[in-house]
Model the fold of this input.
Amino acid sequence: MNSNNLKFLNPFVDNLPGDTEPRNFVRLVRDSCYSLVQPTATSKPSLITYSQELAELLGISPETIGTETFTEVFAGNRTVPGSTPYAMCYGGHQFGHWAGQLGDGRAITLGEIDGKDGLSYALQLKGSGLTPYSRTADGLAVLRSSLREFVCSEAMHYLRVPTTRALSLIRTGDQVVRDMFYDGNPELETGAIVCRVAPTFLRFGNFEIFAAQRNIDVLKKLANFTIRTQFPSIKSDESPDCYVRWFRAVLDRTAFLMAEWWRVGFVHGVMNTDNMSITGLTIDYGPYGWLEDFDFGWTPNTTDAQTKRYTFGKQPQIAKWNLLQLANVLCLLVEEPGPLQEALDEYDQIFEKYYMEVMRCKLGLREFGDDDMQLVQELYRVFESIEIDMTLFFRSLANISSDSSSDHNWFQTVRPALYNPDALSSELHEKLENWLRAYAARVQHQSLNPGTRTELMNNSNPLYVPRNYLAQLAIDDADKGDYALLRQWMEVLKNPYQEQSGMDQFAAKRPDWARTRAGCSMLSCSS
Ligand code: AMP
Ligand code: MG
Done:
């Protein structure tokens, strides 16, 4: 690849106020949306894997992928002419408390590229060294967390869940010190860099920082820029109404995202306002996890194990709390807060609308009626009392016959989703059977032909999700330099709704050994 072929644009830098201090040292930065900073060169970068489809979208030809130049550019060793790398300034509420300035402590945006779909995409290196926002940390990322981000963000894309994406995963050749369990036992780990890609990486925190600094001028500039570039259907005329409409759009996208996380069984793990995308994307894959045994009260994040703020079940309400923080910021741009409050008051209803649509599809219903919420609640009561793999359960539900004359062995149909079917008490067995019977009766009484119902369900209930323990297996191999499992898995994850022959291992529920192993059930923020 000739690095001249990449045409970077820098609208963020060209249009918004930046830091005037050119030196790269950790500091508080005021009145600036970004600081210009060069990625730190890595010692011996090598390409682990990449997303071919995304490369094509960005106009990077297949022949150039894997060339030395490609690896050097996306390891941060070579600056492409025309790009002006920068780190963003943002703040955030962490675990419910204002944390002040945070910013891109280890992410550096190279610039934007026009995609073949007519949209513009920012390319950002994560783990590329110190920036003014690195605070007490090192600006680096380790292979295990980079691989997890690469896999999960691409998997989310193919699951049709709004997300940032990942172009490349590069081993830096450098080692990074990490105290994975914060127990005073630091170890040397393999360093890595993900090049992630999104129309924008702006977060709620990018706006919060200027409210904290009481800098309405920059806040307004950033808001106008965001509306103009990311919400083109809203006329950015600086009127209070345009900011309210923008807030409504952010709220709508966020509510949709929360329903989608519930659809696929994703737990973000650190829903601080600095990890909330202003365009409703899943962003910042850290100690996230995928539900195995369905549990509303589960969080994969060890840091949150006691407080349980960011459990699967609380995500929609936490998103609303985060939207409230954003509304507080936007109060500075509107004459009176009433319309923002009204929008916020509609959040529950909007979330429920999306959620009901999600459940309609997951259950294969033509319409979601009033009684169906009761069926869903009843299902959760079953889930609470029995250890069931959510993904396999919903997938197998499509095989429950809607033909009333057929032989019913409903329990056998969903048996593969149960963690301990032989140990199930007769009482719980009956509870599950009762629900399945009610469900079968429900689908028999609707005029949706069986083929359409199956299609609807299999298109909403994925068979392959990036299971926590599979990520750990891929990490163990990758650490030793063996990327075969990772690459094969990525291929499977490209078609998550389609059963693929010979790929059962990628749909298997969590094996017993993974129940307690670090990285498989609990993750620390250390990355
Ligand atoms: P997180 O909650 O992991 O998204 O990160 C919170 C803040 O810590 C952000 O400002 C990150 O940029 C910063 N941060 C996390 N890890 C590092 C690191 N290794 N080096 C520098 N900054 C980091
Ligand atoms: Mg973050």
Notes: Residues 274-275, 284 surround magnesium ion (ligand 2) (CB under 6 Å). The chain has 17 helices and eleven strands.
